[in-house]
Specification:
elongated, 69% helix
Length: 147
Amino acid sequence: MNKISEIIGSPAISGLQKRENAKSGLFQQNLDAAKINQQAKANPAQCAGLLSVPEAAFPTIHEPLKSIVDGTEHLLDMLENYSREMEAPGKTLKEIQPLIDSIRQEASRLAAEAEKEPGDDALARIANECALTANVAYIKFYRGDLV
């Protein structure tokens, strides 16, 4: 039995080669048009306006507000550590107690700092909510809700 690749003397189908040449030319034209379109989109001279960002889009955080942001991040990290410690099967409540006490102190400090700092109300609200969450965790720990 002959394989298709071994058939040499097959009769040519009329018009097939003309159609293949026409199709390949059309594909090449579309490919060239797409390349030109891509190059036009990627031209840095046209996109130069997008590269400059106005300064007002990113407000600068002043030093007092930065301490509130840092304190909030630190308190959230402490709460995350507390959550991991509570899930650890080998940890006792006596071992976790110093962590929850330091969380309470950090929450009190953060709430006081957010209270006395005028200005960004949204940041103060976030800091107060974080401190409130920490105080709820403290109360639940000492009330025995987690046993």
